[in-house]
Design goal:
The protein is built from 24 helices and 27 strands.
């Protein structure tokens, strides 16, 4: 029997904040998106999609989809809106912004976006040229990996490092602070293939995640202490004469200084800090040094505490110490995006930013909107939010909610649904979804360019993000040619098609094939630093960095280079203790004795999909994992309703008593919507303090208490 699907399949690309950037195939029925599958020809996707994307077509036509522009008619946060025309919506926005600029200047307006869409045209940086032209406050977006970037780039430079596909050749694989089964599924498939060939898989994570349960060996350091473990590994490798002396002498800087520096960072010292036995630390160090090729996959969670940058500096030094880079399948994987040929200066236009424009960090948006950390003579009076949901995803949620309730604050939200943040908007703008717009989706987890073809019209009156900015630019009087480019023209200009990595690849090729592997070596032969060739100033791996300053990589701050964090960076890697722990803050720990970890949810993608019934069914209600000892001490039983709280806020959930977490630790995954939970979300308790490098978040550096709800 015929299934009535159109005979043609269209090329898609998953737009979400995930390293896999899956290549997809769109199929239509009656001119509507009817089926979405993984592209079986793509070497990473291999035809499969994760639980989040398996019915992607249903999200396009969800009954709660925002289809038309609306204006607020009720109290902020009440979800009381009235449908209006695009003309009225954009006239209202542009006139309000002109009034604000006239009275306070353009820095009274701030853009707010992240990776709800990873497209070059419609994603994170899609509105940067518009707001840079305006002269608005620059938003520094450091939710996920930016401290890792600072540490990694300072050590080995902008290299893609170990190709995720090359793990098939690894004999020993360390997955460090990454729950691959839930957040990097297609790389996990490659790891499993290597495991079948005999590779040993070690997972280092502070709780027994889905991935840890699949490992040959799970190592569980206390939250925020991975840096001590890394330093002790370096100590044992050096003091046990396990260093690849030839590689170190030729291709690294600062070995003698590092050797002297780590002498007090022994496995015994680290054992007392991390809770890992001295013997296990020595065993791990020995195996990392000798079971070559060793592949280390670090996750973004590794940065999410006070000393996250220094932790990643230490881990990034290990492959050079052991000579792992000499082997196919050896080295470390951070973000392969560093070898992608994107022209961020063209996308963002930092040359349009007026000199002296201030910077506000997205993690501290609540503080900024309340005037706590900005020049009060230029208050923030308006924000436009797209591809982001700070009320759910940003720390110090209660401050954000308080600020968004200001009657003198004008919020514009371009969204698919009335999210927690959008519920506070003055103007709602309906945005197009994946199959409804042309784009190329950035990947930070593999070495392919991935094209997304527009194959259906948006329902209702939804528009692609960049089309919204085109229309706003016209109303604001911005006549630059860039604001007249079509999406296709943007792609022609946003990619360096003449770069060596792009050799043989054109936009026409991508339209015909859907994806293309960059010319950066193949998975079976790629060993980019076999003979050094690190893209650092010296061409070597920098164990020691001198006269270096803290910075945030350009794409995460609209390519603006002024007002970087600028603090002196330590010359050598080291362990930096967490801000909130029994050892560093005993008085706080008396009130709030439990460390909380807030990893990504298995069935949500950040807060995307958390409003869909089928995903909620898979994920379940907001839960709190707690050890039996801690549960007993609080008279809490399995399935009891509890409140998790500290001085910053609280949220509620259902207890799951388990030995997947150690005593003193609780786990609550993020992404749940405040509107649906009614009692706050996990980031209600999170601090907006920034980590030691790259202004990274400290989501895993928070103390809480748990109490039973009667």
């Amino acid at each position: 029997m015929m299934d009535d699907f159109s005979s043609k399949k269209y090329f898609g690309a998953c737009p979400h904040d995930c390293p896999d950037t899956c290549a997809m195939l769109y199929e239509l029925k009656n001119e509507k998106l009817a089926r979405v599958t993984g592209n079986p020809d793509h070497p990473m996707t291999r035809g499969g999609l994760c639980v989040k994307l398996k019915n992607y077509e249903e999200r396009h036509y969800h009954p709660d989809r925002l289809l038309y522009p609306h204006k607020r008619i009720g109290k902020k946060g009440s979800n009381e809106f009235e449908r209006i025309s695009w003309h009225e919506a954009l006239e209202t926005v542009s006139n309000k912004w002109k009034d604000i600029i006239s009275e306070y200047g353009p820095q009274a307006i701030i853009p707010y976006s992240y990776l709800g869409n990873q497209g070059l045209v419609h994603g994170l940086n899609g509105g940067d040229s518009f707001f840079n032209k305006m002269g608005a406050t620059v938003c520094e977006r450091t939710f996920c990996g930016e401290g890792s970037c600072t540490a990694y780039l300072s050590t080995v430079g902008p290299t893609a490092g170990l190709d995720p596909e090359s793990y098939i050749h690894s004999k020993y694989i360390v997955i460090w602070a990454c729950n691959s089964v839930s957040t990097n599924l297609h790389h996990w498939a490659i790891v499993n293939d290597a495991k079948k060939k005999g590779a040993k898989v070690v997972v280092i994570d502070s709780y027994r995640s889905r991935t840890a349960k699949e490992a040959d060996w799970h190592i569980s350091p206390k939250p925020g202490t991975d840096g001590a473990l890394a330093m002790a590994i370096i100590n044992h490798i050096i003091n046990s004469d396990l260093v690849d002396k030839d590689y170190v002498s030729k291709y690294t800087n600062g070995f003698d200084e590092l050797k002297n520096h780590v002498q007090e960072r022994s496995p015994k010292w680290a054992s007392e800090i991390t809770g890992i036995s001295e013997d296990d630390i020595k065993k791990l160090a020995l195996e990392i040094a000798t079971e070559q090729p060793v592949g280390i996959r670090i996750g973004v969670a590794l940065e999410r505490h006070n000393g996250g940058g220094q932790t990643i500096r230490a881990v990034t030094c290990i492959p050079a110490l052991t000579g792992s880079w000499k082997h196919v399948g050896g080295g470390i994987t951070q973000f392969p995006v560093w070898e992608h040929p994107y022209k961020f200066d063209v996308i963002c236009r930092p040359d349009w930013i007026p000199k002296g424009t201030r910077v506000v960090n997205a993690l501290q948006i609540g503080r900024a909107l309340l005037g706590e950390n900005i020049d009060k003579s230029i208050p923030l009076k308006s924000m436009m939010c797209w591809n982001a949901n700070p009320v759910t995803q940003a720390p110090e949620t209660e401050k954000i909610v308080e600020a968004l309730q200001r009657e003198d604050f004008f919020l514009v939200s371009a969204e698919h649904f009335i999210s927690d943040t959008a519920s506070f908007a003055d103007i709602l703008l309906p945005a197009s979804m994946g199959a409804e717009q042309e784009d190329m989706i950035l990947s930070w987890g593999h070495l392919y360019l991935t094209y997304n073809e527009k194959c259906v019209d948006s329902p209702g009156e939804a528009l692609p993000n960049y089309e919204i900015f085109r229309r706003l630019a016209k109303l604001m009087g911005y006549e630059d040619e860039q604001f007249k480019w079509s999406d296709e023209k943007c792609l022609e200009n946003y990619v360096d098609w003449a770069a060596p990595a792009s050799k043989g690849i054109t936009l026409d090729y991508l339209k015909k094939n859907g994806f293309a592997r960059l010319n950066v070596g193949c998975k079976d032969t790629r060993a980019p630093h076999k003979n050094g060739n690190f893209p650092t100033a010296s061409g070597k791996c920098e164990f020691i960095i001198k006269n270096a300053k803290n910075f945030v990589a350009g794409p995460f701050r609209q390519m603006y280079d002024d007002y970087q964090p600028g603090q002196d960076l330590p010359e050598l890697p080291d362990y930096v203790p967490p801000n909130e722990s029994h050892g560093t803050n005993p008085e706080l720990a008396k009130k709030y004795p439990l460390n909380i970890i807030s990893p990504k949810s298995h069935a949500f993608l950040n807060s995307c999909y958390a409003n869909m019934d089928d995903k909620q069914k898979v994920q379940g209600d907001q839960f709190i994992l707690i050890n039996q000892i801690d549960a007993k001490n609080r008279n809490v039983n399995n399935e009891d309703k509890v409140k998790v709280f500290n001085e910053r806020g609280s949220f509620e959930g259902v207890v799951k008593v388990t030995d997947d977490v150690s005593p003193g630790i609780v786990v609550a995954t993020l992404g749940y919507w405040r509107q649906l939970n009614k009692t706050g979300t996990v980031n209600s308790i999170s601090t907006a303090k920034l980590a030691d490098m790259g202004n990274a978040p400290t989501f895993s550096d928070n103390l809480v208490e748990v109490s039973k709800i009667s």
